[in-house]
Amino acid sequence: MSTSRTKQELRKDPIVGRWVIIAPERLSRPQTLLNDDAISCDSFDPFLAGNEDATTPEILAYRDGGVANGPGWRVRVIPNKFPAVRIEGALDKRGDGIYDKMNAIGAHEVIVECPHRETNMSRLSVENIREVLWVYRDRLVDLKRDHRLVHGLIFKNKGTRAGASLDHSHSQLIVTPIIPIAIQEELDGAREFYDYRGRCIFEDMIQQELATEQRIVLETEHFVVFCPYASRFPFETWILPRHHSSHYENITKPMIEDLGTVMKTVLSKLEIGLDDPPYNFVLHSAPFASQDLPHYLWHIEIFPRLSRVAGFEWGSGFYINPVAPEEAAKFLRETEIED
Fold this sequence. Notes:
One of its GO terms (biological process) is galactose metabolic process. Its EC number is 2.7.7.12. One of its GO terms (molecular function) is UDP-glucose:hexose-1-phosphate uridylyltransferase activity. Strands 3-4-7-9-8-13-14-12-11-10 form a ten-stranded antiparallel beta sheet, with helices on both faces. Strands 2-1-6-5 form a four-stranded antiparallel beta sheet, with no helix packed on it. It has 339 residues and is α+β, with helices and mostly antiparallel strands. The protein has helices at 126-143, 181-197, 201-212, 253-273, 311-316, 325-334; strands at residues 9-12, 19-22, 60-63, 73-79, 94-96, 99-103, 107-112, 151-158, 170-176, 216-219, 223-226, 237-241, 279-284, 299-304. The protein contains six helices and 14 strands. The radius of gyration is 20 Å and the shape is globular. The chain is 25% helix and 22% strand. Helix 1 (126-143) crosses helix 4.
């Protein structure tokens, strides 16, 4: 497949206001438009300890010893080798007839979650998962200092159907100079509810879910996990903090301790109960520049990839979910995992 030498750009859809990243270099990834197979850990694994020279130089690493870009790390952050956005340059906002565009400035990083061969985050120790979650916080704190950048999205693709090109357990961070439309829609809806009722919609959701208990998967001191009332996908699962916080980068150590246990438990339930499905999770957090928002809660959304989005969904914006969230939550509550 041939492509033109179009450079990376952000282009705005003038009808709905959605920004699209045009990134031709992404075709050079191990998984391309014409290749559905992820590179297995059974072949050469660039994320394995000892193979650091096969990756870009590290940005951050939590280490037991050794030197930068060598073995001895527990969690490692590197620039994505095939980035959707690049940190160098100016935004250069400009028009193109009726259209708007700018350079695709931002940060695209990979968080390598462990130095050994592992495909499933749930099989990492809870201490390892907690460090991964703290790395998320560290990178957001650092990148929000760049005034060109306004929002950071953390996500994980597990399995080929979920978009992973390497199966060594890892997650990613993309920081952009605009607020993604999915985040903006959440912010707008939450603000409208707050302006009308004077309450945070996310906190109201938590209270109702705890009161009915129909869609609760688990609850802890700091977090509530449930299948949302209008789940778009089978076994869609959300993790929300019980205490108000709109920015993930403000998370505290006690919350990280709890969240590590929650993530390990929820991912284990999904993987054991659903026979190790591909999945995505995304961490939604408020834009960098805003102060703590009274109408918004940061949260994690997990989507097992058990069904395919087809023509009706793409054309209408509706989703067809064959599994009621009440049944999904009951199934996950009753799924036993090893201690």
